[in-house]
Write a structure and sequence with these properties.
This protein is of the alpha/beta class. The protein is about 35% helix and about 25% strand. The chain folds into 3 domains: about 240 residues, 4-Layer Sandwich (Glutamine Phosphoribosylpyrophosphate, subunit 1, domain 1); about 200 residues, Rossmann fold; about 140 residues, Rossmann fold (3-Layer(aba) Sandwich). It binds 5-amino-5-deoxy-1-O-phosphono-D-mannitol.
Length: about 600
């Protein structure tokens, strides 16, 4: 969480940093700050609240200088306030930080003993004082940074400047993401790619324990210990436009509407129709390798965990291999039974989620082979695993995940086909059917998106409800969970997702004439059962919002509102049902006047445990 940006070059740093921070605001938005080196003096502006407040401040009191660092914060240590906002300064040293320094209390007490006084409650300020202390005893800026980094325990991505070296910018990483943009003789540093995209697509991804010193139009990469490194930039395909709203009122709405395009990109170049197979370019697992696994574990958090639950359904159904799904934050604390016969699949949009990354490391330590499904190219998880399936959804900026979710499921379907074909558990006819379904999917999604207005009317109708229940069965149960999570996250309405059959074991007690119940009821083999559940809700006065298959004429007398999705195979139906649920949460949030893209207390990438 938190976003950091740095710039060094011939342009004025302030507008570049401010723009970069705008595209990183999804990482945290309780305060923000910028420092530029104006000739030889660092000049700092900070403000509490959203970036807008900082923009106003720098409009009134502009910052000059061709070197600068900036930060947008998601509070961990110390409340959101101007004093706790970054950059933090100690003597000549000014820095911004993303991560958590676990031994900051010990360092703070040592430094206090040496006469340092601290202005903020943050762990970050300690780093600035540590560097300052070393410089006081004669160590040069760069070496003082190296020596200090070696004393830190925890996670950091840092951008650092010093009054003593006004032409130098230093950046370093361990545990938190950091990317360097290379643009001729100017350089950019950021927590995530979109902040740099308007300036360059040539990027270097720092590894843990690495740092870079920018000076005299050059970037010198090295390990923190001082071993020089040669790092070549990678070309990133994302276009700057992908990280803009393109006329939509919110990023979330834009991302919902671009799902057909995102799915096409996930499929692009991967479908082998004739062979009834798929090509997964970075999977790095042979047929023999795939045949060697006796079980699969999938780990993920939040929305990605919901797609993992769908993955279990798909893999067990088509590949007849046992699949266990874990919430990543629980995985390594329960002594999981895994070894070389286990394939672990980690799902993460950002590729930076601390809990998922920790689960990946745990699995690798125990000898499991690890494959990731990630959206962000060259993210920490993508780099630490044995193989990766990129979803190619493009940058997802809205905190509520939408296009990442559907493309994760598409990636899981592709992997299911690959696994099924490699292990002979899926027939050629079956795999061709699934491929045909996938190829039809973007067109069907376009059709479902025409429900937008109808969903808005439903949102208006139910806007005063205080609680919602979401019910689904089988492969659509995770869609019920996901629908409820979306509503909670952005409209702050309490919502629960349940398997429909479980309702009578408890949740049915909640049902009265105030309770909207969203029921996912496709015309599939479980239809009769879901229909009975719906009757049970209606009989208790519950207000049913039914999501059904086009042409289902029987459902309207059991439901107060009905949304029909096109008839399609059971395996892609969840992808279509998820769209009206995303739209419902979106419109509820807009009607309540909430901040859709930056809901309270949340951050896009959860890089702390
Ligand atoms: O980047 P990841 O997929 O690892 O993120 C996992 C969750 O933090 C994320 O899905 C979260 O639940 C979203 N806010 C859901 O909309």
């Amino acid at each position: 969480m938190c976003g950091i940006v740095g710039y060094i070059g011939q342009q004025q740093a302030m507008p570049i940093i401010l723009d970069g921070l705008k595209s990183l605001e999804y990482r945290g938005y309780d305060s923000a700050g910028i420092c530029t080196m104006d000739k030889t003096r660092p000049d700092i502006r900070r403000s509490r609240g959203k970036l807008f407040n900082l923009s106003r401040l720098v409009e009134a009191l502009p910052l000059r200088g061709r070197i600068g660092i900036g930060h947008t914060r998601w509070a961990t240590h110390g409340k959101p306030s101007e004093t706790n906002a970054h950059p933090h300064q100690a003597g000549p040293v000014v820095l911004v930080h993303n991560g958590i320094i676990e031994n900051y209390l010990a360092l703070k007490s040592k430094l206090s003993g040496l006469g340092h006084t601290f202005k903020s409650e943050t762990d970050t300020e300690v780093i600035a004082h540590l560097i300052e202390q070393k410089m006081k005893s004669g160590t040069a800026f760069e070496q003082a940074v190296r020596d200090s980094l070696r004393e830190l325990k925890g996670a950091y991505a840092l951008s650092i400047v010093s009054e003593t070296d006004p032409d130098t910018l230093i950046a370093a990483k361990s545990g938190s993401p950091l990317v360097v943009g290379v643009g001729g003789k100017e350089f950019f540093v950021a927590s995530d790619i979109p902040a740099i995209l308007p300036h360059t697509r040539e990027m270097v991804f720092l590894e843990d324990g690495e740092m870079v010193v920018f000076k005299n139009g050059q970037a010198q990469f090295s390990t923190v210990a001082g071993v020089p490194l040669k790092k070549m930039p990678k070309h990133i395909d994302w276009s700057p436009l992908m990280a803009e709203k393109e006329g939509f009122r919110h990023f979330m709405l834009k991302e919902i509407f671009e799902q057909p395009r995102a799915v096409r990109d996930t499929l692009s170049g991967r479908i082998l129709e004739e062979e009834g197979d798929v090509y997964l370019e970075d999977l790095r697992l042979s047929d023999a390798g795939l045949r060697g696994f006796t079980r699969i574990c999938i780990v993920a958090c939040g929305t990605s965990w919901h797609s993992a639950l769908i993955g279990k359904f798909l893999l067990e159904e088509h590949c007849r291999i046992p699949v266990e799904v874990d919430i990543a934050s629980e995985f390594r604390y329960r002594n999981p039974v895994i070894g070389p016969e286990t394939l672990l699949i980690a799902i993460s949009q950002s590729g930076e989620t601390a809990d998922t990354l920790a689960a990946v490391r745990e699995a690798r330590t125990r000898g499991a082979r690890v494959v990731a499904i990630c959206n962000v190219i060259e993210s920490s998880i993508a780099r630490e695993v044995d193989g990766v399936i990129y979803t190619h959804a493009g940058p997802e900026i809205g905190v509520a995940s939408t296009k990442a979710f559907v493309t994760q499921i598409v990636a899981l379907l592709l992997f299911t086909i690959r696994m099924g074909r490699a292990t002979d558990s899926m027939s050629l006819i079956r795999s061709r059917e699934l491929l045909a379904d996938l190829l039809h999917l973007p067109g069907l999604m376009d059709q479902v998106l025409t429900l937008n207005e109808a969903v808005r009317d439903i949102a208006l109708h139910f806007i005063h409800a205080r609680d919602f229940l979401y019910l689904g069965r089988g492969i659509n149960y995770p869609i019920a969970l996901e629908g409820a999570l979306k509503l909670k996250e952005i409209s702050y309405i309490h919502a629960e997702g349940y398997p429909s059959g479980e309702m009578k074991h408890g949740p049915i007690a909640l049902i009265d004439d105030q309770m909207p119940v969203v029921v996912i009821a496709p015309l599939d083999r479980l239809y009769g059962k879901v229909e009975s559940n719906m009757q049970e809700v209606a009989a208790r006065g519950g207000r049913v919002i039914a999501l059904c298959t086009e042409g289902d004429r029987d459902i309207s007398d059991k439901a107060e509102a009905v949304l029909e999705i096109p008839d399609c195979s059971e395996h892609i139906a969840p992808l279509l049902f998820s769209i009206p649920l995303q739209l419902l949460a979106y419109h509820m949030s807009v009607l309540k006047g909430n901040d859709v893209d930056q809901p309270r207390n949340l951050a896009k990438s959860v890089t702390v445990e």
